[in-house]
Amino acid sequence: MMNEKKAHSAIALSYSETSDVAPQVKAKGKGLVAEKIIARAKEHHIPIQQDPSLVELLSQLEINETIPSELYEVVAEVFAFIYRIDKNVQDTNVKHKIL
Predict the structure, then answer these.
(1) Hey, how many other C-beta atoms are within 10 angstroms of the C-beta on 47?
(2) For labelling alongside 88, which of 44, 52, 97, 98 has CA 20 to 30 A away?
């Protein structure tokens, strides 16, 4: 039996309250492409959340496609997670500036 390593997958989402009806898929890929998506996110200090089930569902969408309403709740949780991380980072930066 061969020991096969499962290729990593990544999906990048984007959402603007002022111009988007719902989040859109901006990048997706497996293997090397997934690694590049993750590396770019890290370079730009974009929080990463691992959710293999959600990635599997979102990978069925095309680039620039809006997520379906069935995924609004779970994607909203991801964006809430990112918002909390961003807020914590901003609060930490303010504290450091004050001290």
Answers:
(1) 14
(2) 52
